[in-house]
Prior knowledge:
It contains seven helices and 13 strands. By secondary structure, it is α+β, with helices and mostly antiparallel strands. The protein has a single domain (about 5-245), classed as Glutamine Phosphoribosylpyrophosphate, subunit 1, domain 1 (4-Layer Sandwich). Strand 12 (about 230-235) and strand 13 form a beta hairpin. Bound molecules: glutamine. The site of glutamine has 15 residues, from strand 6 and helix 6.
Amino acid sequence: MCRHLAYLGPPVSLRELLFDPPYSLLRQSWAPRDMRGGGTVNADGFGVGWYPGDGEPVRYRRAQPMWSDPTIAQLAAVTSAGAVLAAVRSATVGMAVLDGAAAPFAEGRWLFSHNGVVRGWPDSMVPLAGGLPVRDLLTLDATTDSALLWALVRHRLRAGVKPARALAETVTAVAVAAPGSRLNLLLTDGHTVVASAAGHALSLRATPASVVVASEPHDDETGWREVPDGHLVEATATGVRVRALAEV
Ligand code: GLN
Protein backbone atom coordinates (compact mmCIF):
# COMPACT_ATOMS: atom_id res chain seq x y z
CA MET A 1 0.00 0.00 0.00
CA CYS A 2 1.30 3.37 -0.82
CA ARG A 3 1.99 6.04 1.78
CA HIS A 4 1.03 9.65 1.38
CA LEU A 5 1.09 12.93 3.28
CA ALA A 6 -0.02 16.51 3.01
CA TYR A 7 1.26 19.55 4.88
CA LEU A 8 -0.14 23.05 5.33
CA GLY A 9 1.50 25.76 7.41
CA PRO A 10 4.51 28.05 7.51
CA PRO A 11 6.99 27.24 4.72
CA VAL A 12 9.16 24.21 5.48
CA SER A 13 11.95 22.75 3.41
CA LEU A 14 10.97 19.60 1.55
CA ARG A 15 14.00 17.96 3.08
CA GLU A 16 12.75 18.73 6.58
CA LEU A 17 9.31 17.38 5.72
CA LEU A 18 10.07 14.35 3.56
CA PHE A 19 13.64 13.26 4.34
CA ASP A 20 14.64 14.27 7.87
CA PRO A 21 12.01 12.77 10.24
CA PRO A 22 12.98 9.37 11.70
CA TYR A 23 10.09 7.66 9.87
CA SER A 24 10.01 10.09 6.95
CA LEU A 25 8.23 9.40 3.67
CA LEU A 26 11.68 8.52 2.27
CA ARG A 27 12.11 5.89 4.97
CA GLN A 28 8.54 4.70 4.42
CA SER A 29 9.56 3.88 0.86
CA TRP A 30 11.80 1.06 2.15
CA ALA A 31 10.65 0.49 5.74
CA PRO A 32 7.05 1.56 6.30
CA ARG A 33 5.75 0.79 9.76
CA ASP A 34 2.20 -0.04 8.70
CA MET A 35 1.57 -2.00 5.50
CA ARG A 36 -1.71 -3.59 6.58
CA GLY A 37 -2.95 -3.76 3.00
CA GLY A 38 -0.10 -6.00 1.84
CA GLY A 39 3.25 -5.36 0.20
CA THR A 40 6.49 -4.62 1.99
CA VAL A 41 8.10 -1.61 0.32
CA ASN A 42 6.93 1.44 -1.63
CA ALA A 43 9.45 1.30 -4.43
CA ASP A 44 7.35 1.61 -7.60
CA GLY A 45 7.43 5.37 -7.78
CA PHE A 46 7.01 8.55 -5.81
CA GLY A 47 5.84 12.08 -6.33
CA VAL A 48 5.89 15.46 -4.66
CA GLY A 49 3.70 18.47 -5.41
CA TRP A 50 4.24 21.85 -3.77
CA TYR A 51 2.93 25.37 -4.08
CA PRO A 52 5.79 27.79 -4.67
CA GLY A 53 3.54 30.83 -4.16
CA ASP A 54 -0.08 31.60 -4.62
CA GLY A 55 -0.31 29.98 -8.03
CA GLU A 56 -0.54 26.43 -9.28
CA PRO A 57 1.59 23.68 -7.78
CA VAL A 58 4.79 22.28 -9.19
CA ARG A 59 4.90 18.51 -9.45
CA TYR A 60 7.77 16.06 -9.68
CA ARG A 61 7.07 12.31 -10.00
CA ARG A 62 9.03 9.29 -11.08
CA ALA A 63 8.51 5.54 -11.53
CA GLN A 64 11.47 4.55 -9.39
CA PRO A 65 12.22 4.26 -5.67
CA MET A 66 12.46 7.63 -3.96
CA TRP A 67 15.83 6.64 -2.50
CA SER A 68 17.32 6.02 -5.95
CA ASP A 69 16.64 9.48 -7.40
CA PRO A 70 19.37 12.03 -6.65
CA THR A 71 17.30 14.82 -8.19
CA ILE A 72 14.54 14.78 -5.57
CA ALA A 73 17.15 14.89 -2.81
CA GLN A 74 18.74 17.95 -4.42
CA LEU A 75 15.40 19.63 -5.08
CA ALA A 76 14.24 18.97 -1.53
CA ALA A 77 17.34 20.61 -0.10
CA VAL A 78 16.68 23.91 -1.86
CA THR A 79 12.87 24.02 -1.94
CA SER A 80 10.52 25.30 0.74
CA ALA A 81 6.75 25.51 0.61
CA GLY A 82 3.78 26.15 2.84
CA ALA A 83 1.65 23.50 1.13
CA VAL A 84 2.88 20.07 0.03
CA LEU A 85 1.39 16.74 -1.03
CA ALA A 86 3.72 13.76 -1.46
CA ALA A 87 3.42 10.00 -1.94
CA VAL A 88 5.45 6.84 -2.36
CA ARG A 89 3.91 3.99 -4.37
CA SER A 90 3.68 0.25 -4.09
CA ALA A 91 1.95 -0.77 -7.31
CA THR A 92 -0.94 -3.18 -6.97
CA VAL A 93 -0.10 -6.42 -8.79
CA GLY A 94 -0.90 -6.07 -12.48
CA MET A 95 -0.88 -2.28 -12.54
CA ALA A 96 1.55 -0.31 -14.66
CA VAL A 97 4.75 1.13 -13.23
CA LEU A 98 5.06 4.47 -15.00
CA ASP A 99 5.70 8.08 -13.99
CA GLY A 100 2.03 8.78 -14.69
CA ALA A 101 0.88 6.12 -12.23
CA ALA A 102 2.61 7.85 -9.31
CA ALA A 103 0.71 10.41 -7.24
CA PRO A 104 0.14 13.28 -7.04
CA PHE A 105 -2.37 13.46 -9.85
CA ALA A 106 -3.02 17.09 -10.69
CA GLU A 107 -5.21 19.63 -12.40
CA GLY A 108 -5.08 23.39 -11.92
CA ARG A 109 -4.57 23.95 -8.20
CA TRP A 110 -5.56 20.40 -7.27
CA LEU A 111 -3.24 17.65 -6.13
CA PHE A 112 -4.58 14.15 -5.38
CA SER A 113 -3.32 10.84 -4.06
CA HIS A 114 -4.78 7.39 -3.31
CA ASN A 115 -3.53 4.90 -0.77
CA GLY A 116 -5.24 1.57 -1.29
CA VAL A 117 -6.77 -0.64 -3.92
CA VAL A 118 -10.01 -0.98 -5.87
CA ARG A 119 -11.20 -4.58 -5.64
CA GLY A 120 -12.25 -6.35 -8.82
CA TRP A 121 -10.33 -3.90 -11.02
CA PRO A 122 -11.09 -3.18 -13.80
CA ASP A 123 -14.48 -4.91 -14.14
CA SER A 124 -15.93 -3.53 -10.93
CA MET A 125 -15.33 0.02 -12.17
CA VAL A 126 -16.97 -0.31 -15.58
CA PRO A 127 -20.33 1.18 -14.51
CA LEU A 128 -18.78 4.20 -12.71
CA ALA A 129 -16.19 4.79 -15.43
CA GLY A 130 -19.04 4.74 -17.95
CA GLY A 131 -20.43 7.88 -16.33
CA LEU A 132 -17.29 9.89 -17.13
CA PRO A 133 -16.73 11.88 -20.32
CA VAL A 134 -15.00 9.68 -22.91
CA ARG A 135 -12.23 12.28 -23.15
CA ASP A 136 -11.40 11.80 -19.47
CA LEU A 137 -11.05 8.06 -20.00
CA LEU A 138 -8.83 8.56 -23.06
CA THR A 139 -6.53 10.87 -21.14
CA LEU A 140 -6.14 9.01 -17.85
CA ASP A 141 -2.63 9.43 -16.49
CA ALA A 142 -2.32 5.63 -16.32
CA THR A 143 -4.59 2.61 -16.51
CA THR A 144 -4.63 2.20 -12.73
CA ASP A 145 -7.32 2.29 -10.09
CA SER A 146 -5.79 5.43 -8.55
CA ALA A 147 -5.85 7.36 -11.85
CA LEU A 148 -9.51 6.43 -12.35
CA LEU A 149 -10.36 7.48 -8.78
CA TRP A 150 -8.78 10.86 -9.54
CA ALA A 151 -10.91 11.14 -12.69
CA LEU A 152 -14.05 10.41 -10.62
CA VAL A 153 -13.14 13.00 -7.97
CA ARG A 154 -12.08 15.58 -10.57
CA HIS A 155 -15.37 15.14 -12.48
CA ARG A 156 -17.22 16.19 -9.32
CA LEU A 157 -14.85 19.10 -8.59
CA ARG A 158 -15.30 20.41 -12.13
CA ALA A 159 -19.07 20.32 -11.58
CA GLY A 160 -18.61 22.57 -8.54
CA VAL A 161 -19.02 19.91 -5.84
CA LYS A 162 -17.16 20.92 -2.68
CA PRO A 163 -13.92 18.95 -2.06
CA ALA A 164 -15.14 17.14 1.09
CA ARG A 165 -18.30 16.04 -0.67
CA ALA A 166 -16.46 15.09 -3.86
CA LEU A 167 -14.23 12.76 -1.85
CA ALA A 168 -17.03 11.34 0.30
CA GLU A 169 -19.29 10.69 -2.70
CA THR A 170 -16.49 8.99 -4.59
CA VAL A 171 -15.55 6.76 -1.65
CA THR A 172 -19.18 5.78 -1.12
CA ALA A 173 -19.85 5.05 -4.79
CA VAL A 174 -16.67 2.97 -5.21
CA ALA A 175 -17.24 1.09 -1.94
CA VAL A 176 -20.67 0.01 -3.23
CA ALA A 177 -19.36 -0.93 -6.69
CA ALA A 178 -16.24 -2.66 -5.39
CA PRO A 179 -16.76 -3.91 -1.84
CA GLY A 180 -13.64 -4.46 0.23
CA SER A 181 -11.73 -1.68 -1.54
CA ARG A 182 -9.28 0.46 0.41
CA LEU A 183 -9.99 4.07 -0.38
CA ASN A 184 -7.76 6.47 1.50
CA LEU A 185 -7.94 9.53 -0.72
CA LEU A 186 -6.02 12.78 -0.19
CA LEU A 187 -6.76 16.07 -1.93
CA THR A 188 -5.48 19.62 -1.58
CA ASP A 189 -5.70 22.96 -3.34
CA GLY A 190 -2.87 24.42 -1.24
CA HIS A 191 -5.26 25.97 1.30
CA THR A 192 -7.37 23.03 2.45
CA VAL A 193 -6.57 19.34 2.78
CA VAL A 194 -9.31 16.75 2.58
CA ALA A 195 -8.56 13.11 3.33
CA SER A 196 -10.56 9.91 3.77
CA ALA A 197 -9.73 7.02 6.09
CA ALA A 198 -11.50 4.14 4.40
CA GLY A 199 -9.79 0.79 4.78
CA HIS A 200 -6.35 2.01 5.66
CA ALA A 201 -4.57 3.93 8.41
CA LEU A 202 -4.52 7.72 8.54
CA SER A 203 -3.05 10.06 11.14
CA LEU A 204 -2.86 13.78 11.62
CA ARG A 205 -0.95 16.24 13.73
CA ALA A 206 -2.09 19.81 14.10
CA THR A 207 -0.38 22.75 15.77
CA PRO A 208 -1.97 26.20 16.03
CA ALA A 209 -0.42 27.13 12.67
CA SER A 210 0.16 23.89 10.75
CA VAL A 211 -1.20 20.46 9.98
CA VAL A 212 0.22 17.19 8.66
CA VAL A 213 -2.16 14.50 7.42
CA ALA A 214 -0.28 11.25 6.72
CA SER A 215 -0.70 7.51 6.23
CA GLU A 216 1.50 7.01 9.26
CA PRO A 217 3.20 9.29 11.83
CA HIS A 218 6.67 10.26 10.68
CA ASP A 219 8.08 10.52 14.20
CA ASP A 220 7.31 9.40 17.75
CA GLU A 221 6.67 12.91 19.04
CA THR A 222 3.39 13.70 20.76
CA GLY A 223 0.43 15.25 19.00
CA TRP A 224 -0.42 12.59 16.42
CA ARG A 225 -4.08 11.55 16.28
CA GLU A 226 -5.36 8.50 14.47
CA VAL A 227 -8.32 9.18 12.19
CA PRO A 228 -10.99 6.50 12.74
CA ASP A 229 -11.90 4.34 9.78
CA GLY A 230 -14.89 5.59 7.82
CA HIS A 231 -14.07 9.22 8.58
CA LEU A 232 -13.07 12.26 6.60
CA VAL A 233 -10.60 14.97 7.61
CA GLU A 234 -10.95 18.54 6.45
CA ALA A 235 -8.02 20.71 7.49
CA THR A 236 -6.53 24.12 6.96
CA ALA A 237 -3.30 25.35 8.55
CA THR A 238 -5.32 26.62 11.51
CA GLY A 239 -8.16 24.17 12.00
CA VAL A 240 -9.12 20.51 11.66
CA ARG A 241 -12.52 18.88 11.38
CA VAL A 242 -13.09 15.11 11.41
CA ARG A 243 -16.51 13.75 10.45
CA ALA A 244 -17.97 10.35 9.62
CA LEU A 245 -18.00 9.91 5.86
CA ALA A 246 -21.73 9.28 6.02
CA GLU A 247 -22.26 12.75 7.56
CA VAL A 248 -20.38 14.71 4.89
N1 GLN B 1 -3.57 0.54 -6.28
C1 GLN B 1 -2.84 1.75 -6.49
C2 GLN B 1 -1.72 1.58 -7.49
O1 GLN B 1 -1.33 0.51 -7.85
C3 GLN B 1 -2.36 2.35 -5.19
C4 GLN B 1 -1.22 1.62 -4.59
C5 GLN B 1 -1.14 1.54 -3.12
O2 GLN B 1 -1.77 2.15 -2.25
N2 GLN B 1 -0.32 0.63 -2.83
O3 GLN B 1 -1.22 2.56 -7.95
